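User: Here's a protein and a ligand (beta-D-fucopyranose). What would the complex look like?
Assistant: Let me lay out the input and then the predicted complex.
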Amino acid sequence: MNDARPAADALPRRCDFPPDFVWGVATSAFQIEGAATEDGKGPSVWDCFCRVPGAISDGSTGDVACDHVHRWAEDLDLARDLGVGAHRFSVSWPRVQAAGRGPWNAPGLDFYDRLVDGLLARGISPYLTLNHWDLPDALQAAGGWAARETVDRFVDYALEIDRRLGDRIAAITTHNEPWVIASLGHETGRFAPGLRCRATAMQVAHHLLLSHGLALQALRAAGCRAQLGIVLNLAPVQPATASEADRAAARLEDGRLLRWYLDPLFGRGYPADVLAHLGADTPQVRADDLRTIATRMDFLGINHYARNVASADGPWDRRRGGRPLTAMGWEVYPEGLTELLLRVQRDDAPPPILVTENGAAFDDEPVGGRVHDAARTRFIAQHIAAVRDAMRQGVHVAGYMVWSLLDNFEWTSGYAKRFGIVYVDDPTQRRTLKDSALWYRDFLQGRPSALPAPAPAGVEA
Ligand code: FCB
């Protein structure tokens, strides 16, 4: 069980990390902003997907979310009070360009102008993501990411954001988790835009990577001063048993989740085993595309939540791992992050790594104005320790960001799953710092308090 870690090492300390290590919180536009139709914002694929009966488990939408468009100053004050040095947020493309082509929407651009200035005024570095999944629906109607034309639209959008904000941004991420957009959005159809076609999904994945490389080249040519990179959702994939069949299943999942993205980004092209597996569903790749995708990055962003266990017999029952489970049913398996970071360092020799998301959903209950989220506090502390362990073994990690600052719209789970270190009361929009936020604040001030008691194994923590 994961509590076998020696007590003295269980508690990370800020002084274990270099002074310039970036500590942050992460958010995304669709999940917090609300103001879905205000001031010229156009609909995104997620606005439309929320209207599909049954798509969102609690039937909710992002129309109001955390009302961040109106409460951004209060939210940035919270981030400042925690003492973070970085805030990861995304720009809603349809807020700044309703149809994904044509005129720029001045009120939308002004909102991000104020947000960026507001961050800097509070001593927080802005880490901007261009695409956290909310593609303008008008572009989806024209083929979305499956259409090569969308690649050019994305590059235009990247350049406009740089023109308006680039002088004040620490880092620009092109895409958040292209695997999710491609596979969940276009293969299983569980996420927007809800399509179910593997060939389309693989073409989408290729166009996302291509647009990433082209955007980096265009931004650098325009003199962009921000650090540039991409954010991948990565997990170590382990076989359920040592059987040949389970090891083959793990190898394939590793290929589709990790190597399909890492290999071309680091100049090795698409992995041969995955191409062979895809057969006729292999994407169309033009001459030079792979060279473009391998354009040098300044950082690699990694979002990490849990390990994956692959079984040839279908989905693996996570209760079998004997670990605490989060409210998402995901295992608490912190050493998986160390393993992942070591593997990426070994195989890809990447630029500095930023852990751009890490956190957990639990069923929080406010009690007398407090939220005692012991399980989340342990989760965050253990994963920070896992980052430290990887760094001690030579991995260059430059930052860590908690997902998420606020309880928010958790995609198909709606508002039922809470990932925030700040509790948001849906009816009143009142924000309350959870114990995990207080722990993170103390940690950042160099005085971590003791970790709360462990959760029992194999049950929701
Ligand atoms: C990641 C997403 C983020 C959030 C977390 C829980 O896949 O990037 O928006 O939903 O999962």
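Summary: The CA atoms of residues 350 and 380 lie 24 Å apart.
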